[in-house]
Specification:
two-stranded antiparallel ribbon
Amino acid sequence: MDAKLNEVRDQAESRGFVTYTFKVGWYNDAVGNAFKLPFEYDALGVLLLSSPDMFELNFLPYLKNNPTQEVHRDPLDCSVADFVSHLKESILKNEAVETYFDYETDPRTRRPRILLQTVGHVAGAAFYYQQMHVTNSESSKKLYGVSIHPDYGGWFAFRSVMVFPHHFLPRDLSPKPPVDVVPGNEDRLKLLLLFNDHWKDNRFRDIIQPQKRYSELQQKYFNTLPADRKILVNNYLSGLPP
């Protein structure tokens, strides 16, 4: 399985993704019963994270290869699902794999099928900063948490998880803590307030100096309302200025 995981990692990197392995049990230990996954503790999980390069290396080529495809959700989501399907049909074709995506919800409860920021934390990918990590906060309102990556700051996204029910990590393997890149209480509070109150201006993403940010085209895409993104896509495919 190690050889297959190396191939998955290499193909993911060529498309602007980064992979991290984790035990399903680490995730289950960190979430409530409603979000636990029905697999053995040591079962192997692989987290797929999109770096700033994913837009140009995976999404735009996907659009060129599927110019007339009718989609019922955001085409970027479709491009990620297409890449994961490619992995399952090639490198992982003889493996049992359960997949989860960031946009999926349980049809019965309408809750997310998986809490990807928690996965990112237990997998050591990015520290998930929450209100419990801030002390002496003057804010009385609920503050939603945000993950910050040591290389990309906030310029990344968790996209998918693959669980392999018949492959297991060593029983004595312990989780590697994520890098705490925002250690000060004042900076953590600033991060949470920027994310909750000013997320549209992207300042929270630069709470640390990132190695790379989203390109101008990528930022324009994400800053455009989903209903209007089709115009950007059509302009791109027609060779027009975005």
